Amino acid sequence: MTKKVIKVINLEYLRRGNKALIKDLNRALVLYQLRREGPLSRMEIAKQTKLSPSTLSKITEELKEKAMIKEIGEGQSNGGRKPVYLEFNYNFGYVIGIKIEVKRLIIALTNLKAEAIDRIELPFNYGASADEVIDLIIEGVTKITEKNKFNDRRWLGVGIGVSGLVNKKRGELIYSSLLGWSRVPFREILQKKFSVPIYIDNDVNVYTLAELEYGYGRDLNNFILVISGVGIGAGFVFNKQIYRGEFGGAGEVGHMVIYPNGNNCCCGRRGCLEAHAGEKFIIEETKRLLSYEKDSPLYEERFSLNIERVLAAAQQGDYCARNAFSTAGRNLGIGLVNLINTVNPASIILSGENLRGKDYMLPGINEVIDENFFSRYCTAFDLKISELGDDAWERGAATLVINEQFQAPIHRKERTVLTSAY
Length: 422
Description:
There is one protein chain. This protein is an alpha+beta fold. Helices cover 36% and strands 24% of the residues. The chain is built from 12 helices and 18 strands. The strands form 5 sheets. The chain has a 5-stranded mixed sheet with strand order 7-6-5-8-12, sandwiched between helices. The chain has a 5-stranded mixed sheet with strand order 15-14-13-16-17, covered by helices on one side. β13 (223-228) and β14 (232-238) form a beta hairpin. α2 (42-49) packs across α3 and α9 (307-315) crosses α10 (319-343). Residues 1-15 and 410-422 have low confidence and may be disordered.
C-alpha cells in the first residue's frame, strides 16, 4: 500500500472574513490599481475600487506612512480642489531576477517595476552540474546585494528562470534536457542561504510574464509567446493568466511533429518542429544549400558554420543563408498554424535568437500563417514580434517575486492530506 498526497484548499482554509482580512484585501486592491494604472488621484482610485472615501483615506495614509506609495503632485482642477496624484513607490524594495543559460548566469537587481539597478554575468563551463551553478548563484547574489546596500529599501525575494520542466509550487526543476539536470530543489537550497522567498519558473514562462506585464501582452487577454532559438518553446496566456500545465510542462511546442519521418530531434523522435525550424536546422539547411551554391562566400566555411555567421551572411545578401532562414520560417509557420487552430489566441508574439533573422524568416512564416482554420471568418492573423529587449528574461524573473509579494492575501495555508492507495 502506498500513500497519496493530496493538497486541499477549501473554505476552512481561506482566511476568515474579519476586519483584518478586509483591510488587507482593500490595501492590496489599492496597491494593485496604483501598480497597474497609476499615478491616480484618490477619486480615481475610489471609482475603480468602489471603496468609500473614508476607507480609502485611511488606507492611503497608512501606505504613505509605510512609504509604499507617495504623492507626486497636483492635477488640474475641474472647479473644486485640485486632485493630488498618488503613485506606487517602485523604490520601496528591490528584488533579484536570474536567468540560467547553458553557459552563463545573468543576475539583475531591480526595483519593483523590474527595472535593472545593477546587473552581472557569471560564466560557467558547458555541462556544469546543478550544484556548481547553485554555488555560483549564491556567490553572485551575495556580490550584487553587498554592492547595492539600501538602508531605505527592503529585499523582497529572488526569482529564477531556467529551461526545462519546473514545479513552480515546490520551487523545483524537475528536468532540463538542455542543462542535463534533474530534481534540483532550488527553493529548498537557496532558502537556507537567503532569508527571502525564492521563486522559480520555466524560462519561457518567465519571458511570457514580462510580455504580459510590460509588452504587447498588457493589451491582450489571450495570447501565445513563441521563443525560437536553440530550441522552440511557448508560453500560453489565457484570461491574463499563464497556463503551466499539470506539472509545469505546458509549452513544449518544439516537439510537435510537423513532418513524420523528418529530421531526427534531440527528444528521440523524428519530424519535430524544433528539428525543422530551430538554430541547428538553419545551420544544416545552409550547409545543404551550399553543396549546390559553391560560389557562395560561405562555401569554404561550411564545416565550421554557427548561427551568427549564417545571420551575418544573410544580412550581406547570401542566397543560401537567406533561404535557410526562409525555410525555417515556413516550417515555424506550420507549427504556428497548428497552435492557432488548437487554441484560437488573439495574437502570437515571436521572440528568441533566431528572430534576429526576422527579415528572412517572416516571408516564410507569412506564406502559411493565414492558412489557419479561422482565416475564412476573420482578417489576417495578428502576429507580432516582441519589442522587449534582451533583459526580458531577468525582468520576468524579477516580476515572479513582485507579483507574488503584492497579490491579494486571501489564503492562509494549504492543508496536506495523506490517503491510502493500493
